[in-house]
């Protein structure tokens, strides 16, 4: 049997290679560059094929496919969400993704996306806050100190100039883990005993808890004027983090309304409750923060275009970093119609 | 950096490994066993999550995701269709697929599916014909002698007892390629100069041409009483192979009506034109062939459950054949919430 041709080979970025790539470039640089890539793609929002993600729900979790295309590249992500996994020593969220050439349909990149999703989620949060948070914000509260929390902290440091993070989790060991990981990273880190304590003096509040239920991580009386809330933990039907009264007092910004209406905090509201689309704030078509007293809420659920931006970013850095394998994923017979002959000659 | 844990590793069947697997088991055995797996899954049709495939169309082709789940396993296929690829030395259709454990969301198999799709398409056609074709059919006409044709011929031999195949393609070299590949495989192979000549004496007619257009591969006067038509080339919007008048004279059987109404031959018909679901024929809920004079038409477009059956078949045979790699695709930190710590320790 002859070796597969070049066309048959798809670059694959494993978990180990993704970690090498991040260290090669530098974590805060990756977060900053990703935020810029995602912002650039939000700016050309109308050039993308958009569809709500395709979800398969079970009693214990969800498996989703998130496709999009800009006409040149096509990308999709596979991602699961299984809150109970953590207790079994497994990741709540794992993911991988693929980028393909629209003109041929051939894949050009397969990549792990568990790490990459944490990076792009943090970059998206920071990018949204750049447009919505009060000017000169210095303090970030993070409620929920799981796998996303450190990425959030460093993205807000790198993109928004945050200098202090205040941490709270119902599980004290999660807060300790997060504080330990952030030590020496150039942030003042304050572990807190309650959500109330964590939000003291914070201009930005990130909620990123994992339970699949209607929860009240923030109650109405906890949220004062002028705050920006980055609510990213409520991201599937039946999973929310904020008291409804907070939503009624907030200017709400979302990625893609047809998806967020089903999955985000706004699933608590009527289907016609006014929300603003983040991409329109970025293009200037819609105002962002009205004044210093406004409560802005980014109801982030994660959208396919963010994954697309992240995959394209990795694809663009591949040759430079050299950290990938090549997989024989695409059958490529010498004569395209002779798939059978290729199979027979391999015998 | 430590090696990835077992949980991080996903078995990957490359194109080369798929070819080894097929030769390890034997091609006709694979086709027969696949037909049985698909039939078994059609028999429990109601236990599957079903959705029309998620398609992204461009001027030159389509990229599709085809997910399904039976509650224990979740599977999806990525597949493109680019008819113009062939002229550029590329495959018209390439594919890969993934099987995951519903209870954890963790992938358990990544596999090439260009070859596997050809196998499952042929196995599905033969399985449908087992229930719909006239008894004791011996002769198969294949119009369109591209990448699918030899697989079709051998599936009908293995599953339906076909002894003669009659070949026609507008491109003579495709017919010659197909005839050459089928030489010595236990079939009488008759290359023909026209579609009319090919269908002479055939009880079963397979149409599997690749052009993305409304074509008339079979005109009304060519189709006599008692024939079974296996129409698998018309499989996306704007792509059909049969004259509409043939549809009006046929009993039409489909996989999943919401998908076939858009993609199959029946896109030419009114949305309420009666069709029968193949799975109901298999369970006995709906009659198949009415009598010896009926024209039966399997309007096959390919459905996600067939890919699911094929992926599960490969997954079940992996350990026996040993032909796979293990990919470090899933981030698996020692402490599930400590994704960041894993990344930092890799630095």
TrEMBL record, chains A, B:
Task: Enumerate the InterPro entries for this protein.
Answer: NAD(P)-bd_dom_sf, ODC_Mu_crystall, ODC_N
Entry-linked SUPFAM superfamilies: NAD(P)-binding Rossmann-fold domains (SSF51735)
| Pfam families membership | OCD_Mu_crystall (PF02423)
Name the coiled-coil region(s): none
The question of whether Disulfide bond is a record keyword is answered with no
- Which NCBIfam families does the UniProt record give? PRK07589.1 (NF005762)
* Protein name as it appears in the record: Ornithine cyclodeaminase
């Amino acid at each position: 049997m002859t070796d597969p041709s070049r066309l048959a080979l798809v670059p694959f970025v494993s978990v180990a290679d993704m970690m090498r790539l991040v260290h090669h470039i530098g974590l805060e640089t990756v977060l900053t560059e990703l935020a810029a890539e995602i912002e650039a793609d939000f700016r050309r929002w109308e050039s993308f094929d958009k569809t709500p993600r395709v979800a398969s729900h079970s009693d214990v979790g969800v498996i989703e496919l998130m496709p999009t295309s800009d006409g040149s590249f096509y990308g999709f992500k596979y991602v699961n969400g299984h809150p109970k996994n953590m207790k079994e020593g497994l990741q709540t969220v794992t993911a991988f993704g693929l980028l393909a050439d629209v003109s041929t349909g051939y894949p050009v990149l397969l990549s792990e996306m568990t790490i990459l999703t944490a990076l792009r989620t943090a970059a998206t949060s920071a990018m949204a806050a750049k447009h919505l948070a009060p000017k000169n914000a210095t303090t970030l509260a993070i409620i929920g100190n799981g796998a996303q929390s450190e990425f959030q902290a460093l993205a807000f440091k790198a993109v928004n100039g945050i200098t202090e993070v205040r941490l709270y989790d119902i599980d004290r060991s999660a807060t300790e883990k997060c504080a330990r990981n952030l030590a020496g990273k150039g942030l003042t880190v304050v572990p807190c005993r309650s959500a109330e304590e964590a939000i003291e003096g914070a201009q930005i509040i990130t909620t990123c808890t994992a339970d699949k239920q209607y929860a009240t991580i923030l109650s109405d009386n906890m949220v004062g004027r002028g705050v920006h809330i980055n609510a990213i933990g409520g991201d599937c039907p039946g999973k929310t983090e904020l008291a409804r009264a907070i939503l009624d007092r907030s200017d709400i910004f979302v990625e893609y309304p047809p998806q967020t209406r089903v999955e985000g905090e706004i699933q608590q509201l009527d289907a016609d409750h006014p929300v603003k689309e983040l991409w329109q704030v970025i293009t200037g078509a819609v105002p962002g923060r009205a004044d210093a007293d406004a409560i802005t809420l980014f109801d982030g659920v994660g959208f396919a275009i963010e994954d697309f931006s992240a995959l394209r970013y990795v694809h663009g850095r591949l040759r430079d970093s050299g950290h990938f394998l090549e997989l024989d994923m695409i059958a490529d017979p010498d004569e395209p119609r002779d798939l059978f002959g290729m199979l027979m000659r391999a015998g």
